[in-house]
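S.,

Sequence below, as promised.
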Amino acid sequence: MSQIVRTTPAASERSLSEVYDTALLDLDGVVYAGGEAIAHAVDSLLVARAGGMHLAYVTNNALRPPEVVAAHITELGVPTEAAEVINSAQAVARLISEQVPAGSRVLVIGGEGLRVALRERGLVPVESAEDDLVAVVQGYGGPDLAWGRFAEACFAIARGVPWFASNTDLTIPSARGIAPGNGAAVEVVRIATGAEPQVAGKPLPPMHRETILRTGAERPLVVGDRLDTDIEGAFNGGVDSLLVLTGVTDAAQLLAARPEHRPTYVDADLRGMLTGQPPVSVSAAGDGFDCGGWTASVREDALALDGDGAVMDGLRALCAAAWTWAGAGVCTLDPGKALARLGL
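The prediction came back faster than expected:
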């Protein structure tokens, strides 16, 4: 699928919650971090839903079943049904079910979310490589997943058993900072076996397909904090995206984003769903980009920022300057002084 190279964030006169019928929201780093709600997340979601926007929670974290995740979001203050939660465990279970007979045994390296999803597809989760299995599936199992589970996967994969992974996120946000994610665990098995898994989670098509099948969204907006999963997944699915800066991605990484990692919109947090998005335009002199009271330009191999105004407006102007300079490549200009002006 051919994609247009985005060189500037998009504008919207209406609030995003009015423009799009469904928000496909990542969880970790967007709605909560370490189990606690991120600032402004609960109020923003409640207002968006009251205005008619459907909410669906789309996560690569395969640890917890949808019922548990829904209960957690409800406890945070946003009443949520299990059907509104779509995870990579469901996507990978569907992927496996399309390749093996019903009733097949699948070795699970991960948490209860994988077991629930496999049973939903008529598959039988097992715990040992000796259990007459036809596939291995690996998903995030939490910080206490025993090292021996990786060995169990390796024993089966070494015999030629097909290997599947729910996702390959190298990191996951936590209340104490960034922790290793399922991708780090997948790398352990990859190094030990030399094998390559079939992966279902964002940004790959199986996850987007699972999400659309379960939500029926017609005008979806992907909302996430990660360029390499949420935003690239939206790019691959041909849908618009909103990046929020409450999780993994920082401003410097955003400015250096490759075309497939450039979001349609960018905002500080989920309040960005409730507002319009300001236009970014070529400056009067033709050598920079204006947004709000800011002008971003390129000077002596660095990004420059002049003016004053809202922090996000300055960042949007810098995105336009960086992405236009980079074209289909990666911006290597120094953003340090420009971002310092914004306190980022």
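The longest strand covers residues 54-59.

Coffee later?
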